[in-house]
Design brief:
Strand content of chain B: under 5%
Shape of chain A: globular
CATH class of chain A: Alpha Beta
Number of strands of chain B: 2
Helix content of chain B: over 70%
Distance between the termini of chain B: 61 Å
Shape of chain B: globular
Number of domains of chain A: 1
CATH superfamily of chain A: HUPs
Distance between the termini of chain A: 29 Å
Helix content of chain A: 40-55%
Radius of gyration of chain B: 22 Å
Order of helices and strands of chain B: HHHHHHHHEEHHHHHHHHHHHHH
Structural class of chain A: alpha/beta
Largest sheet of chain A: 5 strands, parallel
CATH architecture of chain A: 3-Layer(aba) Sandwich
Largest interface: A-B, 15 and 20 residues
Oligomer: heterodimer
Strand content of chain A: 15-25%
Structural class of chain B: mainly alpha
Strand order of the largest sheet of chain B: 1-2
C-alpha cells in the first residue's frame, strides 16, 4: 500500500512530510512524495529545487522508508496532482499540510486542501505547522 | 540656439509635473518588461502606440524613452537572480552575475549593475546631446544618393551581422520589405500587393504590424511553450556595495560605456556585441582573474554599463538621421511617423523642443531608474512569479484593442491575426524579428530616396554613386556582404589561430557555458540557437 504526501517547501509542507514519515514507518508502507507546479510562471517558490529534493531523499533513505518522489509539471493544480497520484497508486492515506487562509483569499484563489479533502477516495490526514 | 540652452529648455519641458508623471510611468513599465523575459521595450512601445495617440507627442516620447532605458535596467535583475536573461542585451550579465548571486553577493551584483547603468546612461545621454547636433550638421549636407546608401547599409548590416544565420536574416528582411510595399504607390498610383482588396490600398498600418509581430507573435509562441519546470530565484535584500566593490567597478563602468556608445550608434551595433566585448576586456584586464567564472564583479559592471551606453548610442542615429538600429528605436521611429512627424536630419530643426525634451527626459529617467531600482530590486523579482497565462492574456487583449483602435476597422484585426501567425512562425523557425520590422519601416523610405535619386538623374542609375559618401558606404556594404567569403579566404591562407573570434557572442556563451539556461523566448534575436538547445 502507499501513502501519498503533498509536499511544498514551507513549514506546512515540512509538517506534512514529517507526519507522513511517521505514518509510513508505522505501517511500513511506500511513501509517495508529490511536489508539483503548474509550470506557468517562471518562478514558483512552491516547487522544490534539486538540493531540497536531495535532502528529502537522504532523509527518507536514512529512515529506511521505501519512497517515490514525483515532481509533475503538467499544468494541473496541486490538488489534481495529489488526487491523481492517490488514484494511481491506490493510496490508503493522503497527508497534507494546512495553512491559515483568509476567507477572501480562499474565495479568490480556492483551496487546494479543501479540494483534496472533498474529493479524495481515501482517508486524508491534515496537519498544521507548529 | 546652442546645445546647452536647448537642453535646458528641454529640461523645463520634461520637468513639468505631467511629463514627470509620464517619465515615471515609462520607467516603471520599462523595468517591469525588462525583468520579464520575453517581454521587451519594443513590444511595450508597440502596444502603447495606439494608447498614446491621444497624448502630446512630447509626453508620449518621454514615456517611450523611460520604457527603453527601463528595459535595460530590468534585464539585469533577471539575469543576476534567475540566470535567465530578461533581455538579449543582458545575456552576458548572467555569466558572472548569477555566479555572484549564488555566492551570496546578489546585492552587490544588482548594485553595480544599477549604478553602472546609471553612470553609463548619463554619459551616453550626454554624448548623445553633444554629438547628435554635429551629426545633423553633417547629415543635412547629404543628398538622396548618400541617404539611400546609408539606409541600405543599415538594413544589410542589421540583417547580416546580428543573428546567427544570414539566410534567415535575409528571409526576414524580405518579408519586411514585402509588407512595407503593400498599398498604393505614391508616385504612380499603382496598387501593389493589395490583391484587389480595397482595405489594403492604404497600406498596412505600422502600428498593427508592430503589435502583431511583437505582441501577438510572442504571446502565441509563449502559449505554445507554456509549461516548463519553474526556476529557483535567489532571494536578495536591498542592493548595496562595499568600498572594494566601488574600487573594482568604476573602471569597468567607464570602459563599458566606451564600448557601448559607439556600437549602439553604428547601424549594426545593437547592445549585444558591446556587452560581449566589455566582458572579454574585463576578463583580460582584471586583477582578480581567478574570480572570473566564479562571480567577478567586473564581469557585471562592464557589460551592464555597455548595454545602457548602447541604448543612448542607438538614439543618436535614430534622432539625427531617422535611422533605427534596433527594434525599440524602429518602433519609436514608427511612432514619430504616426504623429505626423517626419524623422530625419530635419527633426532637430522642425521638432527641436520635442527632441530636447526627449533627451532631457533621458537624464531624468536614468535618475528615476536608479532610485526605483536600488531599493526595489527584490520587489521587481517578485514579478517573475506571475502566472504567464494571465500576463499573455492581458497582452493579447491590449494588442487587439490597440490594433482595432488605430483605424476602427475590423479588417485590421484580421491583419493582426495573420501577421501574428507570421510572427509565431518566424519564432518557430528561428527567423529574427528585427530585420522584418526594420524592413517594414525603412523599406518605404529607402524606396523614396531611391526614386528621388533616379528622378534627379533622369533615370540614370549612375546617380546612385554620384556622391563620395555614397561610394564609401557602398564599399562598406560590399565588405559586410563579402565578409564571410573574405574570412574564409584569410583562414585558408593562414593557419587557424587557437581562439577564433566568435561570429556571434551569444552563441558562444550558450555553447560554452551551459549554466545560461537561455529561455526560449527571452532573447528574440537569437532564436535559432535556442532551438538547437531545446531539441537535443
Amino acid at each position: 500500500m502507499t501513502i501519498v504526501v503533498g509536499y511544498v517547501p514551507t513549514p506546512e509542507g515540512e509538517a506534512a512530510l514529517t507526519q507522513a514519515i511517521a505514518e509510513a514507518k508505522k505501517s511500513n508502507d511506500t511513501l509517495l512524495v508529490i511536489n508539483s507546479s503548474k509550470g506557468d510562471a517562471l518562478v514558483d517558490n512552491r516547487y522544490a529545487q534539486e538540493p531540497e529534493i536531495q535532502t528529502i531523499e537522504e532523509r527518507l533513505a536514512l529512515q529506511g522508508i521505501q519512497h517515490i518522489i514525483k515532481q509533475p509539471v503538467r499544468g494541473h493544480d496541486a490538488a489534481a496532482e495529489v488526487l491523481d497520484a492517490a488514484d494511481e497508486h491506490n493510496a490508503e492515506l493522503i497527508v497534507i499540510g494546512l495553512r491559515r487562509r483568509s476567507p477572501v483569499g480562499k474565495l479568490i484563489m480556492g483551496s487546494v486542501s479543501q479540494r483534496i479533502l472533498l474529493e479524495a477516495d481515501c482517508p486524508v490526514l491534515a496537519v498544521k505547522a507548529d | 540656439m546652442d546645445v546647452w540652452s536647448s537642453l535646458m529648455d528641454g529640461f523645463a519641458t520634461a520637468l513639468t509635473p505631467m511629463n514627470l508623471l509620464y517619465a515615471m510611468i515609462g520607467v516603471l513599465l520599462g523595468t517591469a518588461v525588462g525583468v520579464l523575459p520575453g517581454l521587451g521595450p519594443a513590444m511595450t512601445v508597440a502596444l502603447l502606440l495606439p494608447v498614446t495617440a491621444a497624448l502630446e507627442p512630447t509626453s508620449a516620447f518621454i514615456m517611450f524613452a523611460g520604457i527603453y532605458y527601463g528595459g535595460m535596467y530590468g534585464g539585469s535583475t533577471t539575469s543576476i537572480l534567475l540566470n535567465t536573461p530578461g533581455e538579449s542585451s543582458s545575456v552576458v550579465t548572467a555569466i558572472e552575475g548569477n555566479k555572484m548571486a549564488k555566492a551570496g553577493r546578489a546585492a552587490q551584483a544588482l548594485a553595480t549593475a544599477a549604478i553602472g547603468s546609471f553612470i553609463a546612461g548619463t554619459i551616453g545621454t550626454a554624448l548623445l546631446a553633444g554629438l547628435a547636433p554635429l551629426v545633423v550638421q553633417f547629415a543635412v549636407s547629404l543628398g538622396a544618393p548618400s541617404y539611400f546608401a546609408i539606409m541600405i547599409l543599415a538594413l544589410l548590416a542589421v540583417t547580416a551581422v546580428l543573428g546567427s544565420s544570414r539566410l534567415r536574416g535575409f528571409a526576414s528582411l524580405g518579408l519586411g520589405l514585402a509588407i512595407g510595399l503593400v498599398g498604393i504607390d505614391s508616385v504612380t498610383g499603382q496598387r501593389r500587393l493589395t490583391f484587389g482588396q480595397p482595405m489594403l490600398a492604404d497600406g498596412l498600418d505600422i502600428v498593427v504590424v508592430a503589435v502583431a509581430i511583437f505582441a501577438v507573435g510572442e504571446a502565441l509562441w509563449v502559449a505554445a511553450h507554456l509549461r516548463r519546470s519553474p526556476l529557483h530565484i535567489i532571494p536578495v535584500g536591498r542592493p548595496w556595495m562595499g568600498k572594494k566593490d566601488w574600487a573594482r567597478s568604476w573602471k569597468p563602468w567607464l570602459r563599458g560605456t566606451a564600448f557601448g556608445f559607439p556600437f549602439g550608434a553604428l547601424p549594426a551595433g545593437g547592445a549585444e556585441i558591446p556587452t560581449f566585448l566589455s566582458y572579454v576586456t574585463e576578463k583580460r584586464l582584471t586583477k582578480h582573474p581567478e574570480e572570473f567564472g566564479k562571480g567577478a564583479i567586473e564581469g557585471v559592471a562592464g557589460p551592464e554599463a555597455a548595454n545602457n551606453a548602447a541604448a543612448a548610442g542607438t538614439l543618436t542615429p535614430m534622432l539625427a538621421l531617422g535611422l533605427p538600429t534596433n527594434a525599440t528605436a524602429a518602433v519609436m521611429l514608427a511612432a514619430f511617423t504616426s504623429y505626423g512627424i517626419q524623422p530625419g536630419p530635419q527633426l532637430f530643426s522642425s521638432q527641436g523642443p520635442l527632441v530636447w525634451a526627449l533627451i532631457a527626459s533621458l537624464f531624468i529617467g536614468n535618475l528615476l531608474l536608479l532610485l526605483i531600482n536600488l531599493p526595489l530590486a527584490p520587489l521587481w523579482a517578485k514579478l517573475l512569479q506571475l502566472p504567464r497565462p494571465y500576463l499573455y492574456a492581458g497582452i493579447l487583449f491590449f494588442a487587439t484593442l490597440g490594433a482595432y483602435s488605430v483605424n476602427l476597422q475590423a479588417f485590421d484585426l484580421v491583419i493582426l491575426l495573420v501577421l501574428g501567425a507570421l510572427g509565431f512562425m518566424m519564432r518557430r523557425f528561428g527567423l529574427p524579428v528585427l530585420p522584418l520590422i526594420l524592413g517594414v519601416i525603412l523599406g518605404p523610405r529607402i524606396e523614396g530616396q531611391l526614386r528621388r535619386t533616379l528622378q534627379l538623374f533622369a533615370g540614370d542609375p549612375a546617380g546612385l554613386w554620384s556622391e563620395p559618401i555614397a561610394v564609401v558606404v557602398y564599399i562598406i556594404v560590399a565588405i559586410v556582404i563579402l565578409w564571410p567569403l573574405l574570412f574564409k579566404l584569410v583562414r585558408r591562407n593562414r593557419p587557424v589561430p587557437a581562439s577564433v573570434v566568435p561570429a556571434h557572442p551569444s552563441e558562444v556563451l550558450l555553447g560554452e557555458d551551459d549554466a545560461i539556461q537561455a529561455d526560449q523566448n527571452s532573447t528574440r534575436i537569437h532564436h535559432n540557437s535556442h532551438h538547437n538547445k531545446e531539441k537535443p
